[in-house]
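Researcher: Good morning. I'm working through a list of sequences from a screen, and I'd like to move beyond sequence-only analysis. For each chain I'm collecting a predicted structure so we can compare shapes side by side. This is the next one on the list. No need for commentary yet; just the structure.
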Amino acid sequence: MPIFKRFLKEKNLVPEALFRRVEVEKLLHSLEPDESTYSSAIEALVTRILAAKAANPAADVAAQEREIDERVYALYGLRPEEIRMIEESVGR
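Model: Good morning. Structure tokens for this chain:
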């Protein structure tokens, strides 16, 4: 199981809430990332987000969320058109 999917599952975060299910499944089944390069950085960012939200539920964590997005895109080696497809699916 890819590291980001495992992490989201362990933290009770659902990737389908972020992306359309079809696109998530297509990405997960078609790509084999090198997890070790990105996993600790992504986990550190999520930990910072959770800590910020625990301290202040209204905390602005958009920059950290965007950095996670960028790292996941890099992890999977997504091309600009694939990134555009994902971001359009979530209304960005």
